[in-house]
Write a structure and sequence with these properties.
Elements (H helix, E strand, L loop, with lengths): L1 E4 L4 H11 L5 E7 L2 E8 L1 E3 L4 E2 L6 E2 L3 H15 L9 H4 L13 H5 L14 H4 L2 H10 L15 H14 L3 H10 L6 E3 L15 E2 L17 H4 L13 H4 L8 E3 L1 H12 L7 H7 L4 E4 L6 E4 L5 E2 L13 E4 L5 E5 L4 E7 L1 E2 L7 H14 L1
Parallel strand pairs: 8-16
Antiparallel strand pairs: 1-3, 2-3, 2-15, 4-5, 6-9, 7-9, 10-11, 12-13, 13-14, 14-15
Helix pairs in contact: 1-13, 2-7, 6-7
């Protein structure tokens, strides 16, 4: 274990030490206001060659990417470029096909569009053409009843990515680089070019023994989940494949360091916030709430796609927590009342029901901040 904690945050350091016990590399960072209070890392970033996790090691965010996209949408809302209450078809006329004309921007971003899976196969070449995937979804009839929250694991990214492109003109990766990462010097990418300085520092993702997605926790999973999680012809180890990470995959393919993600979320709730208090209140208001018809999992999403407190997704003890977790145990978010942003990144993916790392870290952080 390496790094620093501010006085009073020694309990977080102790929790991080336990998180490292016997597992792969990880990092945890937190800011309060504009001050870094926790920046810890340790373990192996790549077990194949023994490369250790460093202060600047990035990792794949998985669905934590959705939180970055939710911030991007919130920024457009704050600037008056995106109307959450408007019909998606006002901005994207083709989306009205197959009875989807009344779905609003807020409902789509809150996983209530009824399109959790794409009926056509998705190849590696398709991932370089996200507008075509978005067009296929626009033409598709709903898989589940629109209005009910159903986790759009991958399709969410293509849908909201197309909304962002139509509202702003830039691709999601370019918007994140220009508006979020670049101006703040944050190591966050959507679309990791081979020559990017983050590429050789990237953690190598590995799965713990017996790992499975939380969506498959039921003994008899819904067969439609095969469409929800079907990605591309990349074999058994896609998330370590540079061909996947170079594509802009707005639902799951972002790459970042833990300090960068903590600072990004801290920038929403600190003294000089990225968006206005009114917009923050609006985008953290529940929009899609209910049990997923495919998994039975309780869901709570805001109108730009933030996960909200009150579900099994681990965002810490704060009742006003928002952000987004990622497959395998990572968690990134903010506690507005405590002006706190945080991020937990891991190279080792663990099954949700046996993974207490983020929960313990966030409990220790909350105790320290609230003291």
């Amino acid at each position: 274990m390496q790094g620093t904690v501010a006085p009073g945050y020694e309990g977080v350091r102790d929790a991080f030490g336990r998180a490292l016990d016997g597992v792969g590399g990880c990092a945890f960072a937190a800011v309060v206001g504009s001050r870094s209070v926790v920046d810890l890392w340790g373990g192996l970033a790549d077990e194949r060659d023994g490369r250790r996790w460093a202060a600047d090691t990035p990792a794949v965010l998985f669905s934590g990417t959705k939180g970055v996209m939710a911030i991007a949408l919130a920024l457009l809302v704050d600037r008056g470029r995106l109307d959450l209450d408007a019909a998606v078809s006002d901005l994207w006329p083709d989306f009205a096909a197959a009875g989807k004309g009344e779905i609003t921007v807020a409902r789509l971003a809150a996983h209530c569009a009824g399109l959790p899976g794409l009926e056509r196969p998705v190849t590696l070449a398709d991932l370089r053409r996200p507008q075509e995937l978005a067009a296929a979804l626009a033409a598709q009839a709903p898989m589940v009843e629109p209005g009910l929250p159903s986790y759009h694991a991958l399709t969410w990214g293509w849908l909201v990515g197309e909304l962002l492109r139509r509202a702003d003109g830039r691709t999601p990766g370019a918007f994140i680089a220009d508006e979020l990462a670049g101006p703040r010097g944050l190591d966050i990418r959507l679309g990791l070019a081979p020559g990017d300085p983050l590429a050789p520092r990237l953690a190598h993702i590995r799965q713990a023994a017996g790992y499975r997605l939380s969506a498959y926790a039921r003994e008899d999973p819904d067969p439609r989940l095969a469409l929800v999680y079907r990605l591309a012809d990349l074999g058994d180890d896609p998330w370590n494949d540079p061909r996947l990470l170079v594509a802009e995959l707005p639902g799951a393919g972002g790459v970042a360091t833990a300090p960068a993600m903590a600072a990004l979320y801290g920038g929403l709730v600190g003294a000089d916030p990225l968006i206005s208090p009114g917009t923050l209140e609006r985008v953290t208001r529940p929009e899609g709430v209910g049990d997923d018809p495919l998994t039975g999992r309780p869901l709570r999403f805001g109108p730009t796609g933030f996960e909200l407190a009150g579900t099994p997704s681990e965002l810490g003890p704060a009742a006003d927590a928002f952000g987004h977790t990622g497959a395998g145990g990572s968690s990134h978010g903010a506690w507005p009342a405590l002006a706190t942003g945080f991020s937990f990144l891991t190279a080792e993916m663990q099954t949700e029901e046996g993974d207490g790392r983020a929960a313990a870290l966030l409990a220790a952080l909350h105790e320290a901040v609230a003291a």
